[in-house]
Design brief:
By secondary structure, the protein is an alpha/beta fold. The chain has 2 domains: 8-213, 3-Layer(aba) Sandwich (Rossmann fold), CATH 3.40.50.1170; 221-337, Rossmann fold. It has helices spanning 37-40, 67-79, 96-106, 130-142, 232-239, 261-272, 294-301, 312-324, 329-337; strands at 8-13, 20-22, 29-31, 50-55, 86-90, 107-108, 114-117, 155-159, 162-165, 170-171, 180-181, 189-191, 195-197, 212-213, 221-225, 246-251, 276-281, 305-306. Strands 4-1-5-7-8-9-12-13 form an 8-stranded mixed beta sheet, with helices on both faces. The longest helix is centred in the first third of the chain and has 13 residues, at 67-79. It is globular, with a radius of gyration of 21 Å.
């Protein structure tokens, strides 16, 4: 039974580097029993918190993360929602931004912190970044305003002293401790001697909403990027696939594409067939603005939707989410343009 005078946090270990240790005989990294967490991070005992944990069985590498695992996380959070003040998800870094983006849509009406974190080095290694990431993620998940409401009632990633909105993040490095970036939205908090929150950037607590979990995603989608010299048959073979419902179309600059007649015709025909095509930029920073140049205007006229400043991860998971809701074609087009949970900047 939890002590109600203390905030309660649920740790959810999915797998990944943060929860691994080196096998003394083989040298290979293996998952360790998460119940032994206090052996590696005894500082957790200094928190005046009730902390419980659940572990994926078996834990998975984040490269093996699938939509059914996101649904599993939603179920864990939903079934424990009234028992805990916040949730910390320990996750491998490779697909962490995809998971954070997906959860931001699937946890409709979220009013509690869901903080994803991980590490570049296992938590049992001397120079690990996992210990600091874990401790600060727990502190943020438990943090409350003077009125008792949570400071950060949304899905976030905490990594290397930065708290970022989950559906604004992208992994940028496989080697640096500074592994994630939020290029088109300000950092929500920075952890130094104190945690400094940028309150105006954080989604406010909303007492009028209740949590509505969503479990169904439709992954009949593909991501492809333009490049100079791309062959007509490549794109046509993709666009004419009968099972394809949506395309995340990564274009140049502010949403531009070659002025090839075959390309415009292929894209126009696909949108006539009610395939959803979302235009996002290949640039790490900036937004799609198809009206600026003729090379972008042709795409707008073909029926392609502007993805504004969506990340690849947010564009993909948002479209999967909307397709999974069974909305009409026009409703999906409208919702893709709308800012649902802080994932894009509306023009």
């Amino acid at each position: 039974m939890n002590n109600k005078e203390k905030p309660s946090i649920l740790l959810i270990y999915t797998g990944g580097t943060i929860g691994m240790m080196s096998n003394a005989e083989t040298g290979a990294l293996e998952n360790f029993n998460f119940e032994h967490l206090l052996r590696y991070v005894p500082e957790i005992k200094q928190f005046n918190l009730n902390i419980s944990s659940q572990t994926f069985n078996p834990p998975i590498d984040s490269s093996d993360m699938h939509p059914e695992h996101w649904a599993n996380l939603v179920e864990i959070i939903h079934s424990n929602y009234n028992s805990y003040d916040g949730f910390v998800i320990l996750h491998g870094t490779d697909t962490m931004a995809f998971t954070a983006s997906a959860l931001s849509f699937m946890l409709e009406g979220l009013n509690k912190p869901v903080i994803l974190t991980g590490s570049q080095l296992p938590i049992g290694v001397l120079r690990t970044d996992g210990k600091e990431n874990l401790l600060t993620a727990i502190e943020i998940a438990a943090a409350k305003n003077a009125d008792g409401t949570p400071i950060v009632p949304e899905v976030c990633i905490f990594f290397n002293q930065k708290l970022m909105r989950g559906n604004r993040c992208t992994k940028i490095s496989a080697e640096s401790f500074d592994a994630f970036s939020s290029n088109n939205y300000p950092v929500l908090a920075k952890a130094g001697l104190e945690i400094q929150y940028d309150y105006k950037q954080i989604r406010p607590y909303n007492p009028a909403v209740t949590l509505v979990p969503h479990y169904t995603l439709d992954s009949d989608i593909i991501i492809f990027s333009l490049f100079p010299g791309i062959k007509p048959d490549i794109i046509k073979n993709v666009l004419t696939n009968d099972s394809l419902k949506g395309i995340i179309f990564r274009t140049f600059g502010s949403g531009n594409a070659p002025q090839d007649e075959w390309l415009v015709e292929a894209l126009t025909e696909s949108t006539r067939q009610e395939k959803i095509i979302v235009n996002i930029t290949q640039c790490s920073t900036g937004s799609v603005k198809m009206h600026l140049y003729e090379t972008g205007l042709q795409l707008l006229e073909s029926g392609i939707i502007s993805g504004a400043d969506l990340t690849v991860e947010a564009a993909l998971t948002k479209l999967m989410f909307l397709l999974g809701k069974g909305l009409t074609h026009d409703e999906i087009r409208s919702e893709m343009r709308r800012n649902i949970c802080g994932e894009l900047t509306e023009n």
